[in-house]
Amino acid sequence: MNTRFAVATHILAYLAHSKGQPVSSEVLASSAGTHPVVVRRLMGNLRDAGLVQSQRGAGGGTILARPAAEISLLDVFRAAQEGEPDLFSVNSTNPNENCDLGRVMQETLEGVLGNAIAAMRASLAAVSVEQVMQELAARRPNHCPKAFE
Amino acid sequence: MNTRFAVATHILAYLAHSKGQPVSSEVLASSAGTHPVVVRRLMGNLRDAGLVQSQRGAGGGTILARPAAEISLLDVFRAAQEGEPDLFSVNSTNPNENCDLGRVMQETLEGVLGNAIAAMRASLAAVSVEQVMQELAARRPNHCPKAFE
DNA sequence: TACATTTGTAACAGATTCTGTTACGTATTC
DNA sequence: GAATACGTAACAGAATCTGTTACAAATGTA
């Protein structure tokens, strides 16, 4: 699993914490331990998914497009992985041989994994960004004022 | 997800089908659509996990080390990914800054995903290699004699 | 014994992916 | 008009994955 999901969740939890106040990509990148362009790149996905709104120019930045309680981690996961190869797909080799055993194998495995994938999605859908933000705040009482305040 | 899981399942289903008869890496590779060395490399993992037994020399090859009904896809998954970075781990950046927000975030996300991962493992554990082999056989009545017989 | 077969393993190339970084145009505020 | 901040393209370095070659070791057979 790439870092997109963790960074996106980090960003959204931060935005949930600074209610309404636009946050710049530089501040978010500093908190998430990455580069501002990486944040802005991810932000494109979150914006397309309707999770955040950005504003250019001095004093600009990004805010949540809807209440943090109404953004699930499944929303975040889908937005972060949008346009990427499906993380849950069963990769097989076996291109277009004269035999379709590869395809049947892939379908069989996908059928086997179907229930597990649905369970994972349901688990992500049951947790909101606000819950994550509150758990983070609870677990770090007075640390790192620069990173998450 | 890399192709190891699919190839390993393919190999074991094949071995389950050719009961007791050793199968060479060349035949397995031809069926799985990959290279014999790839099969032998994977076979090292399956051997270490106690799922197969190999024999060198003329007439050698690989056989299942225990009945196919007693090998779950969770066994296969674990063996195939052994030594690889954990597929379910939440990768975050944030090395060793003065602040441990990255670690707390990772722990929080891993806590959130814990139930989903457990559900996925349970789903894999509930399916045996024999079931996969039978489903494959049922879904391809008379095709590809060279690939799976 | 000599030889063919097959595994075990190391080493490397090519492709792909991911992250970080630089660069620059555009929009917005003061 | 200047400073700020986003949006996006482009590229480099690292890492990963798969396929491939090469070769030693083991095993069965003539």
Structure characterization notes:
The structure is a homodimer of 149-residue chains. Chain A has 149 residues and is mainly alpha-helical. Helix content of chain A is 54%, strand content 5%. Chain A has six helices and two strands, in the order αααββααα. Chain A has a two-stranded antiparallel sheet. In chain A, helix 1 packs across helix 3 (36-48) and helix 1 packs across helix 4. Chain A is elongated. The two termini of chain A are 28 Å apart. The mean pLDDT of chain A is 84. The first copy, chain A, binds a DNA duplex (30 and 30 nucleotides) through residues 2-4, 24-26, 34-38, 40-41, 43-44, 54-62, 84-85, 93. Chains A, B: One of its GO terms (molecular function) is DNA-binding transcription factor activity. Chains A, B: This is Rrf2 family transcriptional regulator. Chains A, B: InterPro entries: Tscrpt_reg_Rrf2 (IPR000944), WH-like_DNA-bd_sf (IPR036388), WH_DNA-bd_sf (IPR036390).
Alpha plus pi helix count of chain A = 6
Mind telling me which CATH architecture of the domain at 4-86 and 129-139 in chain A this is?
Orthogonal Bundle
CATH homologous superfamily title of the domain at 4-86 and 129-139 in chain A: Winged helix-like DNA-binding domain superfamily/Winged helix DNA-binding domain
Helix content of chain A: 40-55%
**Assembly level:** homodimer
Q: Flag low-confidence runs of chain A.
A: none
How are the strands of the biggest sheet of chain A laid out side by side? 1-2
